[in-house]
Amino acid sequence: MTEAARDIRATAARTVYLDHGATSWPKPQPVVQAVREAVEFYGGNPGRGAYELALATARLIHDARRTCAALLGVRDPSDLAFVSGATEALNIALKGLLAPGDRVVACSMEHNAVVRPLNVLAAQGVDVVWVDADSTGLMDADEVEAAVRRAPTRAVVCQHASNVTGTIQPVGDLADVAHASGAWMIVDGAQAAGHLDIDVAALGADVYAVSGHKGLLGPQGVGLLCLSEACEPRDLVQGGTGGGASELPTQPTARPDRYEAGTPNTPGIAGAGAAAAFVAEHGHAQHGLERELVARLHEGVLALPGFRVLGSPPREPRVPVLSVVHERVDADQLAFLLDKRYGIAARAGLHCAPAAHRTLGTLATGALRFGIGWGNTAEHVDLAVQALAEAAG
Ligand code: PMP
User: Which of 9, 15, 27 is nearest to 375 (CA)?
Assistant: First the structure.
């Protein structure tokens, strides 16, 4: 082991990790093992060679695709492309479906992975209409419907769950609204996948963008682009796709190759496949525990003087992220004290979602966000509450 690895191992061992909203850690052992085995043994380049090692690697990716598709309710695994993250999936969806002159209705709680591509598109002549969430971060389907009906609309975009408040948005209703007007429904599932039971087809999402490394418990650098049968975004990146299509001068239109130009991230995909299998087996029990822990944290924080929690009251549906604000001590200072004094990892600031903080009235202050997930216990939560009390006391 290198000296750097020894140091980080010691840091890891004393960390109380409560930043699952940013990325999940530690990863379940089957995920670690799958990544290691992919690097160690799966030497061939999938789809690029007919020798056994390349075929085995192609099979590994095929199996991972099937496992991820089954977990998310994607009926045909070819409708699921492996990309680098939710960010890339959302860029493909937005830039691949919208063109100058189009109109898109989006929600005010969106992450920069949606806001920034939409701002680029707005500068190119796409009409972007923002609909405000209420003060708890929740979107109202009637307001979205009113906005969609006002003029011909190409797409509706909404997160499935907020990375600031944990709010679960009514994306199924929004999909009905979108489809009634012939618009695509694009869902940012970065904070939902792995934390909620998801059936992409039943939700009616035409695009469902997944981050592999958050609730799904896979490694960083992998994400999933899930498409409905009818939805065909333009490909943003062209290149080699292996297989028998090499003679084509243009990108093949067959899925998933269209969206997977270049050598794939085999270790990441192997990890995502193992993670999806793990979530399929343990997710149900884990979701119950996460709900319990986030409610415990919520109630604990509300019992402390000077603190408030963004979003809905305790025990209302939310994914397990919880952002807190103190009336006097700023979020950066709280995060610093929690880390230095208690080894607690939590994230202060705007969480790459200034639009959400603007909606909630916390753009100037930001908040301290806790993200609960795999490996967390009631002891972690109780330590966080105690630490907040002492840090603000
Ligand atoms: N959307 C939301 C709501 C997120 O929380 C994140 C991750 N912070 C993303 C999109 C982007 O995901 P990734 O960084 O994995 O591409």
Answer: 27
* CA 179 to ligand 1 centroid distance, Å: 25
The verdict on the CB of residue 312 being under 6 Å from ligand 1 is no
CATH number of 30-277: 3.40.640.10
Contact 200, 74 (CB under 8 A): yes
Whether 352 is catalytic: yes
CA of 305 to the centre of ligand 1 (A): 32
The ranges assigned to domains in the chain are 3-27+283-391, 30-277
- What is the percent of the chain with per-residue pLDDT over 70, rounded to a whole number? 100
Tell me the C-alpha distance between 242 and 48, whole Å.
Answer: 5
Q: Which atom of ligand 1 is nearest to the CA of 220?
A: 15
Q: Does 201 score more than 90 pLDDT?
A: yes
pTM as predicted: 0.98
Give the tens place of pLDDT for each residue, 261-284.
999 999 999 999 999 999 999 999
What's the fold here for domain 3-27+283-391?
A: Aspartate Aminotransferase, domain 1 (3.90.1150)
